[in-house]
Amino acid sequence: APRDAIGEIAYVSLQNGGVTNYTYRKAQGFRTVSSQADATMAGRAAAQADALLQQGDQYAAAGRFDLALDRYDRADIIRPGHADTNLRIATTLDKQLRPIEAVLRYRLFIHQLELEKIAAHGEAAARMAEAIALAQQHIVVLDRR
Predict the structure, then answer these.
(1) Which is deepest, 22, 38, 101, 115, by most CB within 10 Å?
(2) pLDDT, tens digit, for every residue of 107-126?
């Protein structure tokens, strides 16, 4: 069967003489890569972290909090600083009656969201400043006519 450096290729989709996406087999199932970003090591790590989070959610739903926490911790190692992962860890620690660790993770989750909020405001302010500068340039040009 066809293979690449990652695993056995299950499906390749071609369009206009180029590959649009491909699917390969992993231990957890199949993974489809449909963009260049997904094909990078960071994209692969994000997909692996998402799969671990899904496994952890299944264990948590079944009441297997020790296994859920194990999967969440693995996802946190693969993709550190992900707010959703920290929220899941905090919730699981809370359910395991580990309040000190849960509080630390809840605080980390809140801190990460605040950082994301600051970044989003900064990006919005930068776009707004660029739009204002462009509008001012157009006003100058129109006034000269």
Answers:
(1) 22
(2) 999 999 998 889 888 999 99
**Strand arrangement, sheet containing 9-15:** 9-15, 18-26, 29-33
Q: Burial, 94: exposed, middle or buried (Cβ in 10 Å; 0-12, 13-18, 19+)? A: middle
In sequence order, the β-bridge partners of residue 3 are 8
The answer for 31, left when phi > 0, alpha when psi is -120 to 50, beta otherwise, is beta
pLDDT digits (tens, 9 = 90+) for 67-99: 999 999 999 999 998 999 999 999 999 999 999
CA of 67: how far to CAs of 54, 62, 121, 127, in Å? 12, 10, 37, 44
What pTM did the predictor assign?
A: 0.66
How many alpha carbons lie under 13 Å from residue 111 in its C-beta half-sphere?
Answer: 8
3-state secondary structure of 4: coil
**Cα→Cα distances 84→70, 79, 96, 123, 133, Å:** 15, 11, 18, 22, 37
Task: Give residue 1's pLDDT band: very low, low, confident or very high (50, 70, 90).
Answer: low
- Residue 121: which H helix or E strand, with range? helix 99-144
